[in-house]
Amino acid sequence: MTKYVAAIDQGTSSTRFIIFDRSGRIVAIDQKEHQQFYPQPGWVEHDPMEIWIRTQEVILNTLQKSGIHPSEIAALGITNQRETTVMWDKTTGQPLYPAIVWQDTRTDVICNEMAKEGGQDRLRDKTGLPLATYFSGPKIKWMLENVPKVKDAVNNGTAQAGTIDTWLTWNLTGGKTDGLHITDGSNASRTLLMNLNTREWDKDLLNLMGIPSEILPKIMPSSHIFGEARGILDGIPIAGLLGDQQAALFGQTCFNPGEAKNTYGTGCFMLMNTGTSPVANKNGLLTTFGYQIEDQPAVYCLEGSIAISGALVQWLRDNLGIIQKSSEIETLANSVEDNGGIYIVPAFSGLFAPYWRSDARGVIVGLTRYINRGHIARAALEATAYQTCEVLNAMKSDSSIDLKNLKVDGGMVVNELLMQFQADMLNVPVTRPKVAETTALGAAYAAGLAVGFWSSLEELRSKWSVDKTWKPNMEISQRERLYSGWKKAITRSFDWIE
């Protein structure tokens, strides 16, 4: 008898395989990092084959450590770093070029050219998105125009394109033998190629970008039995596909309009459930597809995307050597009482919501001889909280909903200093669930629902429980002073790239 549901969580810096029991608790987990490549300033790449190898390794390690047999697993869900784009040859199974990561800014020329007619928001009515380097469509266009192997494969009819969920599903279901070439709406809606209302690839958008429809995957519901895995997980139904942020929304059981979550990872992503109709936005947010359970209406979201949050801590660790391990950031930040008057604006890849400024670059402002490593560490953590405040303020304007509580998840939520500062700056309670791995849990929930392992959204909601809540504890005058300084610092990052 099946006792478990499993999820692959393929993130920007690592891949995890997690097995959950019927109550949604983690039974077993394994994780492996993969290499980040920076071939030119603003370029970020991954090796798709390394990601596939790491995926197989974490699956095998988890099964071996836990002693769980694949026959005990009812279903598999997949969640992934969104927008990161892969092109491969379906006859050889080999990538045609490195995966272009969501943070990569090489497509700024393409986006600027397309924005000359109709502006940066010319595609918002259909896609809910601005023209920005963040999204997958311009990355495919760049490969079609700049990589001879890609051009040849397209001409030969052997090219396939997709986000990481598509690449993994194709490999898991047989690859070049009979692999499924599919995606779901949460990933497809991040390409600038899917019409939000029809939930199909849009002919006008494809023509604009010069992308042939036959290289793209079929768009499916998020919770649906797609097919069976081969190899290590042979025979297990693959039944859940969700981009990582939508998966976290699902894992946080934000099933009602107005419920929101914020994920603190490499980047930072706040999503608010807005119900079964897309909500137009006027404040720099994204209108995006949330999730779709088979035979039910699609659910939409407002999203605020912040490019750099945890990645700023990694930068302090790897590039500056201020800390040796990411976990040391909190101790160092606690060595000082405040930020000493400095702000870090981590616009390494430009600014995402609510600004969408690809011309921005990172700055540290307010430096004096007084500043030490502790102030820099504290300012790095505070940058994530300030950016989240800006996104939440934009959501309030667009949705006319006042959040009463923010559910949080992701790697940074173990940081007590950051969570308290976040509650203070938002002036609402911040709540961390007992199962912090809500991204993987959301993919597992979607898969488990599809095969009947769980019966309903109500059953899933009953399993969500609070680990800790941080309540605001800051004077209004101090909050306003700190936020005013941040707004001033942000402007110093503008217009750096001509």
* Quaternary status: single chain
Number of β-strand runs: 23
* Amino-to-carboxy terminus distance: 62 Å
Shape: globular
Q: What proportion of the residues is helical, as a percent range?
A: 25-40%
Q: Which secondary-structure class do the elements indicate?
A: alpha+beta
Descriptive overview:
The protein is α+β, with helices and mostly antiparallel strands and 498 residues long. The chain has 16 helices and 23 strands. The strands form seven sheets. A seven-stranded mixed sheet has the order 17-18-16-15-21-22-23. It has a six-stranded mixed sheet with strand order 3-2-1-5-14-13, sandwiched between helices. The chain is globular. The protein starts with a strand and ends in a 7-residue tail after the last helix.
Structural topology:
Elements: E1 4-10, E2 14-20, E3 26-33, E4 45-46, H1 48-66, E5 73-80, E6 85-89, E7 99-100, H2 108-115, H3 124-127, H4 136-146, H5 148-156, E8 159-163, H6 164-172, E9 182-184, H7 185-188, E10 194-195, E11 200-201, H8 203-209, E12 218-220, E13 223-228, E14 237-243, H9 244-251, E15 260-264, E16 268-275, E17 286-291, E18 299-306, H10 310-318, H11 328-333, E19 343-345, E20 363-365, H12 373-399, E21 406-409, H13 416-426, E22 430-433, H14 438-451, H15 457-463, E23 466-470, H16 476-491
Parallel strand pairs: 1-5, 5-14, 9-12, 15-21, 21-22
Antiparallel strand pairs: 1-2, 2-3, 4-7, 6-8, 10-11, 13-14, 15-16, 16-18, 17-18, 19-20, 22-23
Helix pairs in contact: 4-5, 9-14, 10-12, 12-13
